[in-house]
Design brief:
Enolase-like, domain 1; binds magnesium ion; alpha/beta; binds 2-succinylbenzoate; four-stranded antiparallel sheet
Length: about 375
């Protein structure tokens, strides 16, 4: 393929309910889609981060510059544009995994469409549908939380994840356990809100039989997570701290995590995500696919990844309706607690023209035209 045109489409889509985590509250999915046009096919992707660098160091406006000034000129200079050549060309630019993932995914979508292969097939998916978990934000009251969890369980979600922070941890977990029972698959995500000094406090979570505690301590501090894991029965799962397969191998070797959250965006794309999965799976460490409140454009390829053999825990791959009254693609609908793995070529979906038009704030040509 040869790169002809790249368009950036900034979109803003209201969330059905505000999503509060230990680092902030989101009310809108405010990001951009990337539309890559080559001489043989077109591809789409979604940038996973937010306008502010609160979850990770990348952010919407910064990623546009990285793409425009560093990644796209290198992609355009390739005699042959495909993901095999794109990855080494992007490697010269340090960091910026989420921006790289956006470009690689759009190119991969085009590439796979050009030969009619679904992403799930390309990655080696072994499932046609994947169980759906749901991530539940921090609420004003325990009563609000219990109502939300009850609603999600009523819809069929098979696993609940509670966002926690100091002051909102033992009580909500206890309340959910008391109300919905010991059998409910339940886990928590602190998004780096604690320190090792909280180890004794976090150990009190052990009595609730959680599947895992996600990213309790500072990002990239594998040593501290390993120290914490020694003191907890609850498996530590890393999210923010794992940027590639090498980090993942180190974390597993150090016993800094016993479960792996793989987010393709956070590790630079689906090719590296597959390697993260492989290294964890080879060590017998369970993997699950995380989420970033994606629209259908980001959700579709995540479902393909969630169908890999090592993804043995339900992911944060919820239905479109958990996030949006109206999605930008055909909505993903929960059936019997599962979502279908897309089976059309590439990522398997594209924006619906009407929805795209209504949600678009700005479009710019980043390359060509
Ligand atoms: O830490 O897993 C996280 C959403 C945005 C950014 C980070 C995280 C999350 C979630 C929700 O927990 C996952 C989802 O439903 O997409
Ligand atoms: Mg997380």
């Amino acid at each position: 393929m040869k790169l002809e045109r790249v368009e950036i489409v900034h979109v803003a889509i209201p969330l059905v309910t505000p999503f509060r985590t230990s680092y902030g509250t989101m009310t809108t999915k405010d990001t951009f889609l990337l539309h890559v046009v080559t001489d043989t096919a077109e591809g789409w992707s979604e940038f996973a981060a937010d306008p502010e660098p609160l979850y990770c160091s990348e952010f919407v406006a910064g990623a546009e510059i990285v793409l425009r000034d560093f990644l796209l000129p290198r992609a355009a200079a390739l005699p042959v544009l495909d993901t095999a050549h794109l990855a080494p060309a992007m490697e010269k630019t340090k960091g910026h995994e989420l921006a790289k993932a956006a470009l690689e995914t759009a190119v991969l979508d085009a590439e796979l469409r050009s030969y009619g292969m679904p992403l799930a097939t390309y990655l080696g998916a072994v499932r046609e549908r994947v169980p759906a978990g749901v991530s539940v934000g921090i609420k004003e009251t325990i009563g609000d939380l219990l109502d939300d969890v009850e609603g999600y369980l009523g819809q069929g979600y098979v696993r609940i994840k509670l966002k926690i922070e100091p002051g909102w941890d033992l009580e909500p977990v206890r309340a959910v356990r008391e109300r919905f029972g010991a059998e409910l698959p339940l886990q928590v995500d602190a998004n780096t809100a604690y320190t090792l000094a909280d180890a004794e406090h976090l150990r009190r979570l052990d009595e609730f039989g959680l599947l895992l505690i996600e990213e309790p301590l500072a990002e990239n501090n594998l040593y501290a997570h390993a120290r914490l894991q020694q003191r907890l029965a609850t498996p530590v799962c890393l999210d923010e701290s794992l940027h590639n397969a090498r980090d993942t191998a180190s974390a597993i070797a150090m016993d800094a995590c016993r479960v792996v959250n793989v987010k393709p965006a956070r590790v630079g794309g689906y090719l590296e995500a597959r390697r993260v999965h492989d290294v964890a799976h080879a060590h017998g460490v369970p993997v699950w696919c995380g989420g970033m409140l994606e629209t259908g454009i980001g959700r579709a390829p995540n479902l393909a990844l969630a169908a890999l053999p090592g993804c043995t825990l339900p992911g944060d791959t919820s239905a479109s309706s958990r996030y949006f009254a109206e999605d930008i693609t055909e909505p993903f609908v929960l059936v019997d607690g599962h979502l279908p793995v897309p089976r059309s070529p590439g990522i398997g979906v594209a924006p619906l023209p009407g929805a795209l038009r209504r949600f678009t704030k700005e479009r710019r040509e980043l390359y060509g035209a």
